[in-house]
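pls read this protein:
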Amino acid sequence: MQMKSFRFSLGPAAVASLIAALVATAPALAQQPAASADESLLGEYVVTGTVQEHIPKLAILPSFAPDLEDVLLRGIVRRDFELSGMYDIIPDSKAPTGTYGFEDPVAVDEWRKLGAEAIVKVAARSHPSGKIQVFGIAYFPQVGKEPVYEKSLLVDKKDIRVTAHRITDALLGALTGRPGGFASHFTFAGKWGKNRRIFTMDSDGHDLRPFSDANTTSIAPTWGPRQTVFYVESKNYSPFRVLTWDGKQSTRVNLPFKTSIYSVSFNKDRTRMAVAVAENAGSSIYVGNADGSGMARVSKTILSTSPSFSPSGKLAWIGGDPKRDGSQRVYVDGKPVSPGGFVAAAPTFCDTEDGIRLVYSVAVGGNRQDLVMSDEQGRGNVRLTHSMGTNRYPACSPDGRLIAFFSDRQKSPGTYFLSLKRWRTIKLNSQFGESLRWEALPPPPPSAAP
């Protein structure tokens, strides 16, 4: 790959090659592991392990109310719990005979007899104020008949979906001791006709929206300060420049570089920015202030792309020599941490209950990629996918329990969730793209907090 062809005036063929580099894993797609690469270095495939963790049974009470808000609330909460992969949800068809109105009590003993280890009821109805009254309650039947969570809220009709996600997060907090991460959203790049555009999407796959210019090529989005999206764009084959979208319009970000920008990343508190920049025959990582000032080079390898900050402040990127098979590895603060001999791509970090974990993809032959997880220093590798097509662009949920990624497994391409608690995989939807990023929504005002 000749990086020098990525500069200034570019024809269509050159732009196509540049896009492949800019979307972070594309340089790896055409490469195979080194002939001497040992796949045991990628770690054990966790699903084949000998320890089977108990999956608790969860009852989510049915509802027969005709109110649209009630149907939406329960449907969203149930879907969130399904996507979490943490529970075996009891089917509605097995629900005990009884009434399930807004004010009807929960038959805790009857659900316990069905094997329910946790019980959840959510309901919504119109309120005289014009708002929607939302109610949520949860029980541990083995502990007693007193609820472990109970909350009633008044919310605007337009906020019913996000309120449902916040209720799920609060219920997960009550049931597990750690709030969920479903009050959140994605951004990613995907094909739109002949170009690529930037999309946003809710955590449950709802409300998919493109927002970048349909007449330009836009790629490599990431979440920036105040819920903005930063991405890179090329118009009429010009060098890729950084733009930011605030929910209404896109604005050019002034950076001290004249060559193409490959991608952007921010640290946890959004005070530091890292960018991958085309330079001569390669690329480099620069880090500076969030406004683009004070940029200093931090990488030393010929090729340096895909910067990603850890919650602890460490910086990962993909570094190596594009002319050498298997040399593109994950670097953390300048040191290679992924196994040698495997082309790595798209590093990200998960703030899990067991500590911060590094997740990335590796090329494993046959134009396939698998996901690998380790600690921040690359120790204790665990293989998250195996022999299930190509799996790429991992993104971690705000609560650290889920990894979302794009996969073409079983000839059913789309966005998938993998539970890091139960090692279950479930398909979210059929959206397939690049550079997936997952971000929590800002907290609600105190009066609307579940």
